[in-house]
Every structure is written in structure tokens, then in C-alpha cells.
Amino acid sequence: MKKLISFLFSAAVAVCMTAFTAAAQEENKSVAILYTNDVHCGFSADDSTLGIAELAAYKARLESENYQVIMVDAGDFIQGETIGTLSEGGYPLDVMNKLGYDIAVPGNHEFDYGMDIFFELAEKAEFPYISCNFTDLESGEKPFAGYKTVETDKYKIGFVGITTPGTLTTSNPDHFFDEKGGQLYGFCGSDEGESLYNAVQEAVDGAIDDGADLIVAVGHLGEYDYDYKWSSESVINNVSGINLFIDGHAHKVTPKKLLTNEKGEETILTSTGSKLANFGTIIIDEDNLTVNLISKEDFVLTTDETSAEYKAYTETAEFIRGIEEQYDKLAGTVVASTKEELTINNPETGERAVRNSETNMADLCTDAYRIRTGAEIGLINGGGVRSNIPAGDITYGSIINVQPFGNSICVAEISGQQLLDALEMGACFYPKENGSFMQVSGLTYEIHSYVPSSVTLDENGNFTGVTGEYRVKNVLVGGEPLELSKTYTVASIDFLLISCGGGMTMFEECNVTEKEIMLDYQAVIDYIKEDLGGMVGEKYSAPSGCGRIKVISEAGLDEEKPDSTDTENPSTGATISLIPLIAAAVMLMACRKRNCSR
Hints:
Blueprint lengths: L13 E3 L13 E7 L15 H13 L2 E7 L8 H6 L2 H10 L3 E2 L10 H10 L10 E2 L10 E5 L4 E8 L3 H4 L14 E2 L7 H16 L4 E7 L11 H7 L5 E5 L4 E8 L5 E7 L5 E8 L2 E8 L12 H24 L2 E5 L21 H14 L3 E5 L10 E4 H7 L6 E7 H12 L10 E4 L1 E6 L6 E3 L5 E4 L5 E6 L2 E2 L5 E7 H4 L13 E4 L5 H12 L3 E2 L12 E4 L28 H13 L5
Parallel strand pairs: 2-3, 3-4, 7-9, 9-10, 10-12, 15-27, 16-25, 20-28
Antiparallel strand pairs: 1-14, 2-13, 5-8, 6-7, 11-12, 13-14, 15-17, 16-19, 18-25, 18-26, 20-23, 21-22, 23-24
């Protein structure tokens, strides 16, 4: 079969290709690639998203229209809600097998349950996982194939799998290192992107050598500015031969975006969002290629009960109900109530806010850590707070959905300098989203966003220092100015304090005084039941929180308030003065009036 030489793209919905094999027979079926990414256990449809039953129905519709369907997932399918947490990915894998996926790529959260569990799941999968850059460093081998070719009646399509190197910090780092700190697994992220590009190029070339007419990269990379060297766009720019790129990780909806590499070759980038906000289709029909996202508004289930589409829908819905019955009794148990909607979103835009601003859901979590342990400070990274809870009953399952990773609460002794560095690391990409953005209890701080971030990171995205002025200022702990040399007790999750996840390497030397006190979501349940009397009330009424994090966007807006720390900035040598006692008292009184935590 002849190689697919090039594409010609237009602004229209259909994207024309110039060089599919001319030898295909008229009776041969056309091809449909049906793809998903970042499903995160979002299996049931709601007002804005589709569900697994709709996905099965649409696949059946395509097959009834005589398409050869190839089903592909770009990562983070098996983690994210109660169904995943309680089964450690087992139920979600059953769903993938039921749907008949042909190929999947491990996203960073596929590893959240541990390496042994994930490899067991991969063995049970009725489809191959592929990843060209996931590497066993002890053997030097790749646990999964870097690519897979699929032959259809007309074409041979090469799928290349890619997993973000950021997995080392965005999943639990302990899964990739031994007890002595030796690295066991890697993702070709140890330089400025060259190792990743080389791994992808090798896989692309291998698929072409195996006779692929069309190369489809399936990446869990994302369009991130702060990880740009590992982004889907950067890979496209630095690798030749990729015709289409199905992307995940950023939860971004990208119907189709045309990019070119250094050779001028054109590539379509596409991504569906998250939790089946859409599912994607790539239709290869005659000499045309059409990339499209199917949304809730686009999909209307047939009313023909005899059709394959309707049968697939009802059969899959019944399958999901059977799984749900196995955990609903526990997940549906009411543990508390809330008068207020607890959210991770911006109340005005509805967009996710917890990774770059304070929210009442994050305030509740950090208060739970601090108060249930008796620590001075509670911390959680914004990426660890995942879901909203509407006003009304709070169930066990809804709490798990907020914190689905199964992390344990720990208490550690850390210095004021380590705390300042953690806040600075969290704010380094502001106003852009950052999973390491620090949500807090027992302290307040300001982000002076006009100050350029001078945080330095190593090749894996881990914190290595601050070379210039800190943009985090006026840190108050319990209403008192932060002292860099003082030791504070901090309650947080083992992901941060022990595993130094999210790049928080400043915690490596901290003294962990209490380990595995309880699971994070259990701390929240206990806090609501025992400390709030079973009801979340007025204290958390503001969706944007109670004023613990303040953003100063222009220099001079806070000139009446000098910096809060009391020692010399070790990076710049600039003296940082104490906040006057009167100013501190005024701020504390104002904070209390806003129902800030104490």
C-alpha cells in the first residue's frame, strides 16, 4: 500500500487529503476513528455532558453506517470519581473493555493507584496501552509498545502513544522511585525536550517503516505554556511525519487546530475536553478527512428500538447500572449537609478557578486538615481538589469525588522559608493555571502578579530555587508575620509532604511527625460532622473563599503595607521588613470579619 504523502487543509469542516492509495476498491468501508480523552470516570450523562451509553450508541451508529471504527483513548480514563477510587481502576477498565477500545495511552493519572496495580490492569485490558516514552530505567526497556498499526480495508494507520513527562510530579512520585530515591521509571523528560522528541520520532518512523499510510499521534501532553517543551504543539513542531494529533491532559476543547513542523508539514491537533463534554471523530472517507467533535447538543439517540444504536445504548446503560449497584450503597450514604454550594469554579464564568485562585471548596479541605490534626497550617495543591458539591446532602461519594486520589493526611515541621518557597512555587505561573497552586488554612498571603516569577525548575519540573524577587509577599500565619527561620506545623497530604509531588522539593528535608493519620476525604467528612455539627454553613458562603489569597496586580497598590517576612531574602539580598503591629492587627480583624479560618 502506498504511503500517505501529504495533506491539503481548508477552513471548511472537511479536510482534504491528497494521497490516499488509489488502489482501494469502491466496496471497501470508510474509516472512523472515535476518540476520547480525560474521561476521569465521568460515565453518566448530565445536562452538559454525554455518557458512556451515548458513546456506545454512537459507535454502533457509525458501524451501522458501514464505517470501520477504531476506538482510541488519550489517557486519564480510569481515575477521577468514586467508581475509580473504590475499585482502584478496576470498574473503569471493565467499562473500557465493554466499549471495545482498540488503543489507549496511559495518562499521568493511570499511575495513581501504583505501578503494580496499573500493570495488572494493563494485563486485563482487552486492548493495548501504547507509550513511546514511558521507560523502565532499570532494564532500559519500554513497558509498552511505542506504536500500533491498524489495518483497515483501505488504509494502514499507525497510532503513536505519548505520555507527559510531567507524570513524575503530577501522579504520585513515589510510584516511580525506590525506597532509597533511585528512579525506576521515566518518561524521556530529562532535557529541554529532545529526548521526548527523539522517542516520538523513532516511533513515527517505525510505524511508517511498517507500512502505515497515516500517522495519528495519541498524546497525553496538553497545550500548556509552563510545560511547553512537553506540550503537544512542541512535539508537533519538532517531529516530522505526524498527520493527526489526538491530545489529552489539559482538559481543553480543541475541535481542530492546524499546526506545522519545521519541514512545513501540516498536522491537525484535536482534543475533546474532559468527562465526555464531547467525543471526537475522524472520518476517513474516499479522499476526504473530517475532524469533528460531538457534543451533548449534537447527539440525539434514535427512537428505533430495533436498531443496533438503540440496543448498544440500552445494553451499555444496563452494564453501567450493574457496576454502580456494587458501590452505590456506600457512595450514596449521606454523611453531612451543606447550606452553601461548595465549588472549585469561578462563580461568574463557571470555569475552573481552584488552580489559580481561592475557592470555598479548597478552604473547607484545608480547614479540615488543619483543625482535625491540630496543626498551625493546612495546605492542599489546587490540582488535588477536583469537584463541586451542590447545596443539600453531602454523600460519601461526593466527598471522594472532591479528593479521589486516596492520599493520606500527614503532619510535618517545616521552616518559614520552606513555606514561602511552596507558596512561591504555587504562584510561579499565575495567572495561568497550575496544579501546584497553594490553597491554605491558618495563613493569608498576597501574590504580586506584576513581579515576574524567578522560580527555577529542574528538567522534571521540580523546584530548585528562586533567583530574584519573590512575588508572594505579606504572608501572615495566624495573623502574625511569617518568620523564615521559625518552624511551623503543617497538615497536608502525603503527595506533597512525603512524595514532594507537584515539584514541591522544598519539603524533602522536612520532619514528618505524623504519617497516614487518615485519608484526605475522611478528614473532610470528620471535620464537617464533628467540628461543624454536620452542616457546612455561612463561613463558606462565598464561592471565592474568605479572603486568604489576595492578588496585587500593580506595583504601588499596597505601598502602605510593607513585606511581612522578617529576614533577608536569600536569593536577592534585599531586606524584607516586618509588617507594623497595627497593620497586622487591622488585617487580622478584617480577616475575622470575613470568616477566615483561625
